Amino acid sequence: MRTIIEPFRIKMTEALPMTTRARRAERLAAAHYNLFLLDADDVTIDLLTDSGTGAMSDRQWAAMMQGDESYAGSRSWRRFEATVRDITGFTHIFPTHQGRAAERILAATRLKPSDIVPNNSHFDTTRANIEYVGGRAIDLPSPKSRDIHSDERFKGDMDLGALARLIEREGARAIPFCMITATNNAGGGQPVSLRNMREAKALLAAHGIPLVLDACRFAENAYFIQQWEEGQAERPLLDIAREMFSLCDGATMSAKKDGLANIGGFLACNDDRWAEEFRNLLILTEGFPTYGGLAGRDLEAIAVGLMEALEEEYQRYRHATVDYLASRLIARGVPIVRPAGGHAVFLDAAGFCPHLSPADFPGVGLVDALYLEGGVRGVELGSVMFGRRETDGTETPAPRELVRLAFPRRVYTQSHFDYVIETIETVFADRAAIPPYRILWQAPFLRHFTARFAPG
Ligand code: F0G
């Protein structure tokens, strides 16, 4: 069959908020033109993030009913630990309330001020946790990723030449660990190849530097490997995932992505000394090591979700959904990051709005226009999120002006995406009308969450 269908049917529904254009215009102004400040009840199709926004399966809900809420040594913990070990092979596994809690424990226990942590691209919470303890988070994306419009594969790879030069220049002792983020969210949701991971591991091992996987979207990455990488087509996703983890000495995970859960995460490693320090800080900040900030029922939902994320049918449908939106936008001439990523389509706001410069924040104009037109919420990944206001008041722009339309897992159907396509098409036809925006107020850090804007 050519038609790839959603591999589930719907047993429970949640009404979509339907709004009028007049209402959206009024809510947008009240939110100071910042979509983070909207009530979700005013959003019809919410593509703000794929994190914690997925729909759980009947098997997950059934497992939740069996949650064992014992403080120590609960049955749910055993189930969670066994599943995570089955997939990752790690000796030590610590549940955390979400991904950034795992990152915080890793950074706080392993880093001294001025230590360096390279990554293909750090996600913003990973970078913030490293910098919070005085470390230096360095991005080494593959040169392939520079041209956002090329269809090259594995643009999420790490630049291993740059990694070798960094180790040479700074010395292995300045690099307590290296990270790889799969898929590479900050780089457009692009995957990392097994080959790149194997070569990175060999290079790092020669210098005694451990490798830690940011595994949030490990299952989506495994599917790209199966589809694209030579010699991988016949391997089950679980097998590929196991090899990805086997190349690493530890992992941080947000179960809000490929755990198919609404909350949760974990930190894992093989080294006993690392584990002892992780455990001590975990008890202080997250909870006892057999629940780590989660309820027993959350551990159950994650244990089931991690395995569901590795089902072929599920990944085939998931990638087909992203491709569906991407291919239709490409056919209409809408500029997007290519190839389509695993969890999102990234619009090129600079290409979409050639009449605007980075100082006009074209990503804000575009997300606001999509909201106004169809009640669709995306997120700006451009000069608001990654640019900076200097002390003299001038703006340093980001290298790219993107808008991310992230796909919650198992939530929206094909007709919802047809609606999104029509919304984008309509905005694209009238794109010259997208106004520039100014920042009226901003916080000193992570300004995108709370900034207030005005058009014109
Ligand atoms: N690493 C990556 C690659 C991520 O994308 C995220 C979260 C995290 C770590 C942190 O995990 O949210 O559970 O603390 N990304 C979300 C997003 C928020 O919208 O892309 P968390």
Structural features, described:
This protein has 456 residues and is an alpha/beta fold. It folds into two domains: 21-50 and 311-455, Aspartate Aminotransferase, domain 1 (Alpha-Beta Complex), CATH 3.90.1150; 58-308, Aspartate Aminotransferase, domain 2 (3-Layer(aba) Sandwich). The protein has helices spanning 21-30, 58-65, 75-88, 99-110, 124-132, 160-170, 194-206, 218-228, 237-246, 272-285, 296-308, 312-331, 349-352, 362-374, 414-429; strands spanning 45-46, 92-96, 116-119, 136-139, 178-181, 211-214, 250-254, 265-269, 344-348, 376-377, 379-381, 388-389, 395-396, 402-406, 437-441, 452-455. The strands form six sheets. It has a five-stranded mixed beta sheet, with helices on both faces. It has a three-stranded antiparallel beta sheet with strand order 9-14-11. A hairpin with a 5-residue loop joins strand 12 and strand 13 (395-396). The longest helix has 20 residues, at 312-331. Bound molecules: ligand F0G. Residues 49, 51, 98-100, 123, 125-126, 181, 185, 214, 216, 254, 256, 265 line the site of ligand F0G. InterPro entries: ArAA_b-elim_lyase/Thr_aldolase, Beta-eliminating_lyase, PyrdxlP-dep_Trfase, PyrdxlP-dep_Trfase_major, PyrdxlP-dep_Trfase_small.
